[in-house]
């Protein structure tokens, strides 16, 4: 009975065995020392990375250095972003805009596009905003990643009821005054970690509250003063 | 000068059968005379013969499939044949409806004799897969007459050719019924008999057109032939054997057309970026689709993939009766070098990937972010749909200010409470068209999202983006 269950879990890639830990593929630094330490070197260069996060708390800033490094080898493709991706901000983060594509795709099309881009071999990273996945979707996307030596970053809403997916790495991000509070929920060949804080103050001083400037006031107070 | 002639007795039928296989007796009937002009093996097995009336043929097999004879289809097919043979022989011309003249004389040196030329011509024609017969002679008309009699030999000796010609019945040589009647009245059954009569005698009895034909047959009077000049563009159309109302089935005959396009392109070392697919509905309405590829492509499989992606969303309003493929703009094919020993063997180039995505999503859905020197954020950040166009401004020109990564398409009124962290940054510009006076602030809302908000002079607050 137990053996059957374990076999089933194994085939769904929901558990892994100790000897598989040696098969870790190359990783690429995220340029945040805390995160690199927790991830044993950085984000994987290949495979599916799931990031559960709210939009606009710094989740893109977390992966931009990684995308910038990967972008030097091939295309970086954003699929179905929640709003317009600003070219200025990408360029300021050091991404070569010649190597960045943005696709407007509907929900059904976006998975197809992601698979095509990943397995094309000319694209190193795909960033996909998509909510509903099934396990076989992730399987196909993982295969496509292997075929094209590419990585896929999936942004999903932070929904605790969502299905656990057989991805290489799942990160949950929550807003934090110093930057982000991250938690590794699952990763291949590694254990989950408790929440830890990724300090972004040194890279993005304007977007962290670690050193509150003197002139900060709440909006209500500001409005009152303006009147 | 030695001439060759290829005769295609059932061109329309062959073309129909190439595109779609047919498992029923089928005849092609001339609309004017109502006679069967071409028929397939199954129809022959039913006892139907050429020149039989339609009524007789139909009575022999009641489920007979009948297709009207279409001269332009045959002419198009002939042009296609000539195009594919053009790289083997320079002097080639289309005869009225179902034959091809080739002037061998100039090509013999290149091929070191007739054998080499014959082999390459027959190999090429075997690829096209048509029923044909051929012959050679020292005048184009004689070659035509011999080819129609299915000689299927290329002779170079004049005596041999004369023997072959004289072996023919006179009705095979002279096709017009008026001439045939006249010859029969004179009791002439063989060409040899005609040759014995002096020209002066002949001119007393026969019309001018007969005489000039006879002289052309003997090679004494030249035949006016306009040789084929290759066309710079591709245009082909096929009539479908039956009406097609779903795209899936339509893709099959289309694949045949795409193969012809590919062979057309490969032979010329050309490639194209856009095809026009034209479908004619049953009600003779015409619908056209432009199929684009981001790169210059001459591969039938790649085009097929793009066409099927683009057409998968299309609904046919009515059954389609004919399809055509047109390609106007052709350029020389440029081969892009590939990494030979790279770690990653890339399956597709960037342009191929772009073609795929554009075919699936639509041309305007695949974009590249660019920016230009402009203070208004909604104008500074643009999306370009082409690969070649580079950013209007370089990265050095970028003002190193904080800019949000998610920009809302239209600013939304601010409804939640926020804490302003940085600012203001005043943007005041565009007095000449859409005047903008905004004080931008970086703020954080209750959920920890970093917002880019602005205040207008009338104290209205808007949210314009998020720092992702």
UniProtKB/TrEMBL annotation, chain B:
<feature type="domain" description="UmuC">
    <location>
        <begin position="23"/>
        <end position="147"/>
    </location>
</feature>
<dbReference type="InterPro" id="IPR001126">
    <property type="entry name" value="UmuC"/>
</dbReference>
<keyword id="KW-0227">DNA damage</keyword>
<dbReference type="Pfam" id="PF00817">
    <property type="entry name" value="IMS"/>
</dbReference>
<dbReference type="GO" id="GO:0006281">
    <property type="term" value="P:DNA repair"/>
</dbReference>
<protein>
    <submittedName>
        <fullName>DNA polymerase Y family protein</fullName>
    </submittedName>
</protein>
<dbReference type="InterPro" id="IPR050356">
    <property type="entry name" value="SulA_CellDiv_inhibitor"/>
</dbReference>
<dbReference type="InterPro" id="IPR043502">
    <property type="entry name" value="DNA/RNA_pol_sf"/>
</dbReference>
